[in-house]
Amino acid sequence: MPADLGIPTAALLAGTLAAPRVPDDPAAHAVEAAHGWLARIAVRSLGRIVIVPVHEIVRLEAEDNYVRIWADRPYLHKETLTGLCARLDPDDFLRVHRSHAVNMRVVRELHPRLHGEFRIVLANGTEITSGRSYRSAIQRAFGLGRVPD
Predict the structure, then answer these.
(1) What pTM was computed for the model?
(2) Residue 81 in contact with residue 93, Cβ under 8 Å?
(3) What does the buried/exposed string (b/e) look like for 118-140 if buried means 16 or more CB atoms within 10 Å of the residue's CB?
(4) Torsion sign, CA atoms 31, 56, 86, 112
(5) Residue 69 exposure: Cα atoms within 13 Å on the Cβ side
(6) Quick one: pLDDT at residue 46?
(7) Which pLDDT tens digit goes with each residue over 19-46?
(8) Can you give the CATH number for the domain in which 98 is found?
(9) pLDDT tens digits, 41-90
């Protein structure tokens, strides 16, 4: 089947795709080409490979050496959260906890909590509590000064 798509088998197994281009988001493809950030992720699911466009991802959640990708539905991808986040555009995705990263476009509210944590509310109503060590990264990403404890 990979030959039918024109996609090398090694690229499918590695979880990366350089071609074919999908005409859904030309700007995302231009950024991917310029910086090497992923525009889509190939996820193995029940004997098939599902292509998940990165711009549709809401959040990422670590599950041991896998990542639960929350998009139109949850997908389980065999890669660590650290590894996947390194291949995603840091202007779009922010690591907020050792087990969570969020798409910054869907963050709707930040509620400061004690000890430098935030309760992060996403557009779909999901709430995630950030880790204390991610406080300064969250503040920088959202243009916040010092947030009172």
Answers:
(1) 0.74
(2) no
(3) bebbbeeeeebebbeebbeebbe
(4) positive
(5) 26
(6) 86
(7) 333 344 555 445 455 678 999 999 998 8
(8) 2.40.50.1020
(9) 999 988 899 999 999 999 999 999 999 999 999 999 999 999 999 999 99
Helix%, strand%, coil% for the chain, nearest 5: 30, 35, 35
* Residue whose token pair is 């998940």: 52
16 vs 37: CA distance, rounded Å: 10
How far apart are the C-alpha atoms of 97 and 10, rounded to whole Å? 32
Number of structural domains found in the chain: 1
* 3-class secondary structure, 104: helix
Residue 147 maps to a domain: no
Q: Residue 127: which of 140, 111, 139, 115 has the closest Cα?
A: 111
Residue-level pLDDT at 9:
39
The answer to whether position 36 is within a domain reads: yes
Can you tell me the mean pLDDT for 102-120? 96
Q: Which domain holds residue 43?
A: 2-141
Domain assignment of residue 25, yes or no? yes
The count of other CB atoms within 10 Å of the CB of residue 113 is: 14
